[in-house]
Amino acid sequence: MSPTSYQLLHPAMFLYIKIRTIAAGFFNSYSELDCKDIICFFAKQIKFQKMSHKAGFVSIIGKPNAGKSTLMNALVGEKMSIVTPKAQTTRHRIIGIVNEPEYQIVFSDTPGVIKPAYTLQESMMSSVQGSLIDADIILLVTDIHEKYDESDVIEKLKRTESPVGILINKIDKSTEDEVKQKIVYWQELINPQSIFAISALHGHNIAAIMQFILEHLPEHPPYYEKDVLTDRNERFFVSEIIREKVFKLYEKEIPYSTEVVVTTFKEEQAITRISAEIIVERDSQKNIIIGKAGSMIKKVGTYAREDIEDFLQTKVFLELFVKVIPDWRKKDNYLKRFGYEQ
User: Fold this and answer.
1) Which CATH code, of 3.30.300.20, 3.40.50.2300, 3.40.250.10, 3.60.110.10, is assigned to 234-337?
2) 3-state helix, strand, coil in the chain (%, to 5)
3) Which of 78-92, 99-113, 140-154 is most confident?
4) What is the CATH number of domain 54-216?
């Protein structure tokens, strides 16, 4: 009897054998399988297909002080990046992860795009370039009142095939006509997948950005465990909190000449004991950091300790020291030690 006539005479039996044959490819042997095994197997496959998961990397780039860090914190829903009114506050590529059952979004906050003048800035721009290579989606944040040439940012975007969203930030400080003009400008300049007029500070249009991301996020298993918020450890965020206070409390070149290194991080039952060094390049800067009779460094320590306690959710004992390393921003060995990309 031919297979065709067998199929016609016994359609149920033919389907059963066909399913067993397919399942054999997954189980290697179907000698021990029964109908219950096969039904359960295919039910799981159907459930898996319906529950397809999305995951991808979203890079946030732009010129200094455009509002990238504020946007990152708003998108993640946590304070991942330090925010100050000064440009070039962000030095490292900082990852913040948003986890939901159906997706995982890995955001990268990057240093502001500049033409590097010394080795530290070269490292910062290297981290920007790395984030663009990894990116599944790129968000370009631009201040609506941007006064600087953005051609270097635009040049980087021309070399990417990833979907690009333009985010015109700080619209709370502009008029409707200014917003419309900027939208037309960016549409004509690079014709991105989407343009958003936003206020990262006030959370305006954040939901629309998230929707744009989800629409372009590729199907992929999670890159990180679902309970992970970032790839950085607690010591890194403690150093960033201290550095944020330096940026906020000191003027001119002082913040840009400093680095913060956590040297001791000891967790005890009732308190966490932390020691950190504020690195500067000259003795005159050390004197400014310390202040008259230690008044300034005491202020840095007080403000930083309060935020660190809030971050760690425990009582903190914080010691700060100031160390001079001449021209550390131009020396590869120190930059590597301080965690900058080479």
Assistant:
1) 3.30.300.20
2) 45, 20, 35
3) 99-113
4) 3.40.50.300
